[in-house]
Amino acid sequence: MVMITGPRQVGKTTMCRQIVEGFFSSQHFNWDVPSDRAIVQRGSWNPMAQALVFDEIHKKARWKSWLKGVVDARPEGQALLVTGSARMETWRQSGDSLAGRYFSYRLHPFSVKEWLDQRGGSDEEALDRLMRRGGFPEPCLAEDEDEAQRWRRQYFTDLLREDVLEFSRIHEINAMRLFLESLRERVGSPLSLASLSQDLGVSSNTLKHYLDILQALFIVFLVRPWHKNIARAVRQTPKVYFYDTGLVKGSEGCRFENAVAAMLLKHVHFLQDAKGQDIEMSYLRTKDGAEVDFCLSHEKRLTHLIECKLTDTTRSRALVNFAEKFPDVTAIHLVKNLRHEESRPPVSILRAAQWLGSLSA
Known about the structure:
This protein is α/β, with parallel strands linked by helices. It folds into 2 domains: 2-106, 3-Layer(aba) Sandwich (Rossmann fold), CATH 3.40.50.300; 112-356, no CATH class. The protein is 41% helix and 19% strand. Strands 8-9-10-11-13-12 form a 6-stranded mixed beta sheet, sandwiched between helices. Helix 4 (112-119) crosses helix 5 and helix 5 packs across helix 12. The longest helix has 24 residues, at 252-275. The protein is globular.
């Protein structure tokens, strides 16, 4: 069985429909459609179908134990696709374990690589579009900017009014909205919940709960400082980014950094989910405040150091120092608006759009 998760309206259902086109016979059931739900509850689908798709099945009571039974009783060779907007691990506490019965795949918004693979054109144009509109299909493919903005405004409202209510109480919505608005202005900065707690008049523990919800719903993701000791890395201050770059409030530099973070995360998740690689994304920061925007590690060993700039080609002292400290690591200074690429050991100064287009996904 394959579980496909990802943000609301990122294209999970469309992807499933495209996949099952390759099967001789298939059935697609959406829990939100009454007639489909009735068939699921009765278990009266065609047992000989080569592929079954269960959309939003996590809304079914005791869905994990029910799904375990479906997996164990299915005919040999029958493919199962299961989708859900929130992370499946959110419901670890309920029902029986599905361990050993599925692979997970996290679907992300469009990246430069995916845009070039599917639509062609120049990598610069692709990056500009994704920074301006975000990578979600509806606004990204919209005919004009007004249509994209209308979609995003409605999307933002629906996330708070519908999806968040799955995890919290209705009286918390206003506090959650203020918290989310604050995060939109803090992209790429170390996130202090204690400071936000004072600004919003909400306890730090409550904000941590809100942050967990926003992560579970694939609205934001955290990038933590790199450390060989995972427990220490988790305790240190993370940075927050949005899956939808179009939600970022701030300068073009902030949107660029968020776009790079989102595409790096897509690259990392693809290698984890499709290839089984032990790869992680983090950032580097010393006690005296020297910082590198992102780093990639494989099996707990650093492989890449990545600094993002709009136009500045001056190598950051932190990037050079870390590159000299870890001589086997690839150090990259990504510049969005760059006339000429350069090699200034130990750092390579590269065009951001071209490099992002070379990622795995």
